[in-house]
Design a protein that fits this description.
Layout: E1 11-12, H1 16-29, H2 34-53, E2 60-65, H3 69-83, E3 87-92, H4 101-113, E4 117-118, H5 123-128, E5 132-136, H6 148-160, E6 164-167, E7 189-193, H7 206-209, E8 211-215, E9 240-243, E10 248-249
Parallel strand pairs: 1-10, 2-3, 2-5, 3-4, 5-6, 6-7, 7-8
Antiparallel strand pairs: 8-9
Length: 250
């Protein structure tokens, strides 16, 4: 897929609170389910991974998945990557019983396909043996530093020397202030969903975000109207675009 770059004067950004309200509008007002958005996120994240790897056949991909929506997007990406020929290994931060409903649905599909699912104890070796690591641990609902298992998985990814791609924002990064908690993923590429979170654009975040990409998860412009945001036809040419600092209105 050829690289697409945003060709607008600016790309608006949203706060975590605004994105929570957008998610509510999507589900409650527009009837677009979390699973639908998760599928779109996973498809785009898998595509970004394929672009990063310049092909997937037998390439080793470790997916670090949390218990919430961010983890579900990573699991949806894992399914696509496995179908496309990658050697995918899942590392769950928490037991399957702790997953929210939508991520649990994604996990069930992976298990039915025979994709290996591992616990945190196997993370260090799986990450070290991988060609790329997908960070789907923590999303924009982060409240304070990563805790316990997630923190250990972030440190394992950062110390491995393996390139990391982050979903929505690097795990551990404050979505509004852009301040990196201890620890925070250092990503080679970050794929934001719908619109970038404002923290991704802060100077403090620059060493953690890497290349910034943006993916369409089917949010209509009307969902942003109450915030006075008009994103315009961001995805008219592609549902996955690279964003450069000069094109962002933070």
């Amino acid at each position: 897929m050829p690289e697409q770059t945003a060709r607008l004067d600016f790309v608006p950004a949203v706060t975590a609170a605004q994105m929570r309200e957008v998610d509510r509008i999507m589900v409650e007002d527009l009837g677009i389910s979390l699973l639908q958005m998760m599928e779109n996120a996973g498809r785009a994240f898998a595509e970004l991974t394929r672009m990063h790897m310049s092909g997937l056949n037998r390439r080793r991909v470790a997916v670090l998945a949390g218990r919430g929506g961010n983890g579900g997007g990573g699991l949806a990406a894992a399914r696509r990557l496995a179908i496309w020929g990658a050697d995918v290994r899942i590392v769950l931060a928490h037991p399957k019983g702790a997953l929210a409903e939508a991520p649990a649905h994604q996990l069930a599909s992976l298990r039915a396909m025979g994709v290996p699912v591992n616990g945190p104890a196997e993370a260090v070796s799986l990450v070290a043996e991988s060609d790329v690591v997908l960070d789907a641990l923590l999303g924009y609902s982060l409240d304070g530093p990563p805790r316990e298992v997630e923190a250990d998985l972030i440190r394992a990814a950062n110390s491995s020397g393996v390139p990391v791609l982050a979903l929505d924002l690097p795990s551990g990064l404050d979505p509004d202030r852009g301040l990196p908690h201890d620890p925070t993923i250092r990503a080679a590429r970050t794929m934001a969903l719908a619109l970038p979170k404002v923290g991704l654009l802060r100077p403090e975040a620059a060493g953690y975000v890497g290349e910034l990409w943006l993916a369409d998860i089917s949010v209509p412009a009307s969902a942003y109207e109450r915030f006075g945001i008009n994103p315009g036809p961001l995805f008219a040419e592609s549902d996955l675009i690279r964003i450069t600092q000069g094109l962002i209105d933070g």
